Amino acid sequence: MITVNKMKPSERMKIPRQVSIEQKPDERSHNFKEVSFGVDEERALIEAARCLECQNPVCREGCPVNIDIRSFIQLVYQKDFSGAVNKIRESNYLPAICGRVCPQEEQCEQVCTLGKKHEPVAIGKLERFVADYELKNNLFTPPSIQEKRPEKVAIVGSGPSGLTCAAELAKLGYQVTIFEALHAVGGVLRYGIPEFRLPRTILDLEAERIKALGVKIETNFLVGRTETIDEFFKEWGFSAIFLGTGAGTPQFMDIPGENLNGVYSANEFLTRVNLMKAYKFPEYDTPIKIGKSVAVIGGGNTAMDGVRTSKRLGAEHAYLIYRRSRTEMPARLEEVHHAEEEGIEFMMLTNPTRIIGDTNGRVSGIECQKMELGEPDESGRRKPVPSNETKFIIEVQTVIEAVGQSPNPIIQSTTPGLKTGRKGVVIADELQRTSRDGVFAGGDLSRGGATVILAMHDGKIAAENIHKYLQQKAH
Amino acid sequence: MYCIIEKKVLAPTITKYLIEAPYVARKRKAGNFVIIRVDETGERIPLTLVDSNTDTGTITLIVQALGKTTKALALKNEGDFILDVMGPLGNPTPIESGKTIACIGGGVGTAELYPITKALKDAGNTIYTIVGARSKELVILEKEMEQVSDKFYITTDDGSYKRKGFVTDQLKELLDANLGINMVYAIGPLPMMRAVSNLTKPYNVRTLVSLNAVMVDGTGMCGGCRVTVNGKMKFACVDGPEFEGHEVDFDEMLLRNHSYTDMEKISIDRFLEEPHVCRREGMAS
Ligand SMILES: Cc1cc2nc3c(=O)[nH]c(=O)nc-3n(C[C@H](O)[C@H](O)[C@H](O)COP(=O)(O)OP(=O)(O)OC[C@H]3O[C@@H](n4cnc5c(N)ncnc54)[C@H](O)[C@@H]3O)c2cc1C
Ligand SMILES: Cc1cc2nc3c(=O)[nH]c(=O)nc-3n(C[C@H](O)[C@H](O)[C@H](O)COP(=O)(O)OP(=O)(O)OC[C@H]3O[C@@H](n4cnc5c(N)ncnc54)[C@H](O)[C@@H]3O)c2cc1C
Ligand code: SF4
Ligand code: FES
After folding, report:
1. pTM of the model
2. For ligand 1, atom 1, which residue shows the shortest CA distance?
3. Which of A132, A246, A323, B185 could staple A351 via S-S, CB 3.0–4.6 A?
4. In the CATH hierarchy, which fold is given to the domain comprising B2-90?
């Protein structure tokens, strides 16, 4: 493998990992503008020079969609930013999004050779840099479509899995239509992940690029109700269907007081703010109430987004209540750091036992129990068990529960023969095939809650196998 | 974009709209609803599908102008568009047959009750209908309802039309008359549905109500529409909107439905101050 950097590895190792340029915490915790501006060209070039150009680039194996990371970093080093983003796009059609939301520290950067003794190459920041560079300079050219194929494919759900599957199939020449229940595309990228982590202009642009491939998008279309899967085959003439409807049904803790006014699922809270723009009330009609203090329950990305959004809506105290300890929190590391900087009050090893209301049926407090870590459970993490300390109450006006989601059952219950497993996930094999002929599934719907990049991985694998399936059927 | 094909004022503040939405029209069943959003800055609100026509691809909505969204809708005219219409949502009403059923509508709930009553009548049930309104001018769908009923009653709170009193007064009389009523449908304001449920309970007559919980997505994704039925948490949009009236925690629901009253007032005051808003027919309250 060729190398392009003349520096000796020992010299490269001396270069410090570059950091993003960010809005100051006390400023950004009051606005919805993007927290991080990423790295600039100067920093990107310095960062690219750190890459060791390994003969065995393990980073690529760490990437769920197998991006040729080494080559794209070499292109950055050579200042061919447009070439770099196109290299990424060979494996990942949504680089501006992944550069912002992927948990790189658990993927490519976790295995990066440089990371063994030093800090790993900031692969995510470089990915974002080249994607933003292309965007700013308007360098995007849609890939050419080799041949048009007659078969129609329906994609249900416009989250990352659906968008990716649609893009891949459109590139192969198929007639693709995406059906989305909400009025806007993107799935969690639209209604869940806040603007301050993923500006909607980026998402809109990525959606436009998918349309530019000839993909049709039908919003306000709830498959299972507006039309069923069987009707798609029989009446609409679709030859294959991909299901990427995610895991959108919120779970509740089942503790007393959950139906008081001021208790939200994280989904409702974030949907009101992100999809419906309640943070711009009364310019936008959808209301949201926050009060002086907010308690957010959970330790994942959803909880982190809820608590940081609360702060931005004006909460003086925004508590994050999590029953395990810091190290077990599943959220992206960067988000945890950002939350801390923004003054989020972390209450670890704490479990809510009851939500307390006032005489008007509004939340006035939350009762909690201190926990301690016991024996490891089936997830391998130490199980939190109640401590001997007495319960205590924190005064809050809003409680947001981010304690897990399961798949929306509408399609499963209206599609005979579609096999489901634990918590209602649709069972898909390694080729993303379901128990129904011609129906493929992936993303949170089959995984029960995962990541953007894994959803994209599934969408891509599904597209490859839909292609094979349709080829076989044609012959 | 969904075009308003026809608009007709039925009563002060109550307007009927025919809207082009062919996918929804094709699938509508009695008991279904849609979620609409009037414009880009608008809220998503649920409205019952009163009727549909598969030939013309239109749906019928009957809407009471209450607050910002419904008044903004009332400003739209024939030929105008509304931004989003999604559906049909909710579980269709299970249409039984061979029963004697009392169908009770209060206010604009009468519009929501109409498709159900019609379906029940078509299925061969005996229908006693009671329509309640505050006063004569607010009685809607009188002819239509009468057509699909075997017996038809109207009550007005102020006595300005037909019987003075509440729907429950009339219903109690019917129940006491031992007419063999073995099922009740009640759709209207929450206090009315609660009163009907409380009345029928000692008579042991199965009572279904349609819960107008505050909704956002209408697909089961937010949980904002959750209600307590028989001690269990249910999502009105996907588990309902119809539930057994004797099992619904109405007190909790009443509180939840007033979650945003103060902010709704800010919205409507701001809207009415806007200069382009003229108080048209059908908007005055
Ligand atoms: C608040 C939050 C923050 C997150 N942060 C991160 C992060 O930083 N990094 C990361 O990697 N992951 C993150 N995740 C997880 C990630 O967003 C999901 O794993 C990913 O979006 C799953 O993609 P998907 O394509 O499977 O489905 P989704 O993104 O869930 O999209 C499914 C879409 O299908 C639509 N739909 C559902 N049912 C129907 C139907 N019957 N008919 C038509 N359309 C339907 C839905 O409306 C939705 O738009 C986060 C999740 C949440 C909730
Ligand atoms: C399943 C269902 C079917 C309905 N069918 C009809 C119908 O056929 N005709 C009709 O006139 N009305 C119907 N409604 C009620 C209608 O949705 C509300 O009147 C409307 O949302 C009021 O919005 P607004 O902005 O005009 O008023 P606002 O001033 O915002 O609110 C007035 C009251 O309406 C209710 N409301 C507000 N926002 C929502 C929301 N997003 N979802 C649900 N309720 C809300 C609240 O109780 C509130 O106090 C239905 C409600 C449900 C849940
Ligand atoms: S593992 Fe790290 S150092 Fe090696 S090629 Fe990949 S990014 Fe560069
Ligand atoms: S309206 Fe969101 S779950 Fe029912």
Report:
1. 0.94
2. A302
3. A323
4. Elongation Factor Tu (Ef-tu); domain 3 (2.40.30)
